[in-house]
Design a protein that fits this description.
alpha/beta, Rossmann fold, 16% strand, 9-stranded mixed sheet, 39% helix, 2 domains
Length: 359
């Protein structure tokens, strides 16, 4: 493990966003005496990976956030929603192997064959063990978002002893079912809107997902239409507001953002074809409390699939929280209600188990 000298990455002098990034970095600074504010590099499964931990009080429960994609690191987005979480949790963001800041730390050609579901799950378990030792905790809260929720379910299945609770946001259950439902919804919406260009593009994908499975090119066509209809962010037909967030991140330089894009492309072309037959429908019991926080308008990972799965699941306790004005990006779309759900349904579990803050 190698601790970096600085929690923030300095911006190049010619960075047009440097001043804004500096303002945000100052605003985000953890100044409390018992706070946690560190970035460090670890080796998980033979690959060097970057971890970011922030919180106002190290006595708080640890919340490990497993990002989506695959390969879409959410560390450069954390400044837009995470600071209030840090009053109640020590929040750990982790750029998975080949993603985000971790991309430049390993040879992409060597990493590519290791981008498998089992390897991501094993990396996460190794990281949780490290976090327990580093911060003196018995267990962690695991939050999985989008692709990270698929990884998260398998972590919860394999090592419930490490977790206070599992939280799924934009929960992904079955890859092919996910694509089928999203396609049907998007085509119906295109017809309702009389969007002839979109109808033609979608009809050209039939049968979808079809016997050839799923691939990045066909997914891009579907996502390009569904996002315009609010499947990713409710009520929005343009995602520039979200994809611009990393420009002001104190965590990433312009070069880091470019590397992150390369890592995302690597993960998508490597993992997506292999995921066609993957499903968590056979996970019918978990030995850990399960909380799903779902956006009512989510058609990127259609929320109805996850809600139906949760109804069938056996677990020590379950909770389903609907966010009525969110789609897939509830942390940014309804940040207050997302935090309220974590405080009402998740934090008390860790506190009751003795991993809470000073009360």
């Amino acid at each position: 493990m190698h601790a970096l000298a600085s929690a923030q990455t300095p911006a190049p002098a010619d960075d047009p966003y440097a001043e804004g990034r500096a303002v945000i970095a100052g605003l985000q600074e953890i100044v409390t005496p018992d706070g946690v504010d560190e970035r460090f590099t670890v080796t998980l499964g033979g690959a060097r990976q970057v971890v970011r931990a922030r919180g106002a009080d190290r006595a708080n429960p640890i919340l490990l956030f497993v990002h989506g994609g695959p390969g879409a690191a959410e560390m450069p987005y954390l400044w837009s929603f995470q600071r209030p979480w840090e009053d109640f949790f020590t929040v750990v963001q982790w750029d998975q192997r080949g993603a985000g800041l971790s991309y430049a730390l390993n040879d992409p050609a060597a990493i590519a064959p290791t981008l498998t579901l089992d390897r991501y799950v094993a990396d996460a378990i190794e990281l949780i063990e490290l976090l327990r030792a580093r911060y003196g905790k018995r267990k962690v809260i695991l939050v999985g978002h989008s692709w990270g929720s698929f990884v998260g379910l398998h972590i919860a299945q394999r090592r419930p002893d490490l977790l206070h609770a599992y939280v799924g946001m934009g929960q992904l259950i079955d890859w092919l079912d996910n694509e089928r439902v999203q396609f049907e919804w998007t085509l119906a919406e295109a017809r309702r809107r009389g969007d002839g260009e979109a109808i033609a593009a979608l009809e050209a994908l039939r049968p979808y997902p079809g016997p050839q499975g799923i691939d990045a090119t066909r997914i891009d066509v579907l996502r390009g239409v569904s996002r315009r209809y609010g499947a990713l962010a409710a009520y929005r037909d343009d995602m520039q507001f979200y994809f611009s967030i990393p420009r002001l991140s104190p965590e990433y330089t312009r070069e880091d953002r470019a590397a992150a894009n390369a890592g995302s492309a690597l993960a998508i072309r490597t993992i997506i074809p292999a995921m066609a037959g993957e499903s968590a429908e056979d996970i019918t019991r978990l030995e850990v409390p399960v909380i799903l926080i779902l956006g009512r308008h989510d058609q990127t990972t259609p929320a109805g699939i996850a809600a139906a799965w949760l109804a069938r699941l056996a677990a020590p306790s379950k909770a389903l929280v609907w966010l009525e004005h969110s789609a897939h990006l509830m942390m940014v779309e309804e940040p207050g209600r997302t935090l309220a759900a974590l405080l009402e349904h998740v934090r008390p579990i860790a506190v009751a188990a003795g991993d809470g803050a000073r009360e």
